[in-house]
Design brief:
266 residues, mainly beta, 2 domains, nine-stranded mixed beta sheet, nine-stranded antiparallel beta sheet, 4 helices
Amino acid sequence: MQTMDRWAACGQAGGWRRATGFSRLGTPAAGGDMNWRNGLMRLWTGPCFLALGLALQGCSSSQAPVQRELIIAPAPVACAGDPPATCLSASEPSGDTWLMRFNEIEGFAYEPGFTYEVLVEEPPLRQEMAVVPQLRLIRGASKQPSDSPAVRDPLARSQWRLQSIAGSDDRAWSASEITAQFHVGGGWVDGFSGCDRYIGALAVNGEKITISAPTATAQLCANEAAARQRTYLQALAKALSYEVTGDDLQLKLLDGGSMRFRATGG
């Protein structure tokens, strides 16, 4: 499978390369909604020549904006990068599939659990631009709740509040108000990470669990809260298996460590 972003294709065509690992910072949306603007990159999967042709549409400074119909999937997905992250999965009517970072579409508010059909405008990509321009929402055609299968799993029955991460001060973690809610049927986990809201792709198979590197909102955090959040999200992405005993949840991690949560709801 060939993957390519528009910047890379334009750079190859124009005889230049952009620096890797660029990012765009974000700000919290009003009312506490998620507003996601982490490392911005749009990837297209498919035959190389067609991918290159689509990507090069934006290379010319005289190229007019392009409108695209996109279908946004209801569950986030893991996406590669440095660092790895969680992305949206979008497809065009032709079947072409894109991975995009949260809030890459200006004016679009994503809520997991819904399938969206939207019309967006893609600005032309100019070589002198420092960042990939955002898509702009023209209109939202529909927002339909997904048919997530009903799952009878103790992991999915409650919101969980973090109590400890092995090797660190339990009291600090239990007072942090960090939470996790595992939407097993939908395929994502979300919650509060001590400063921001976060979301990650989730896969559960028996007692085995896989969580993509979570993507968090970009609120300003005190140094201590930011460090605690970073430790928590990094640990969560290492989850290997889980065990629920009564109101207690234990996640066992790839590095041999563990995380312990307590149920906070029914």
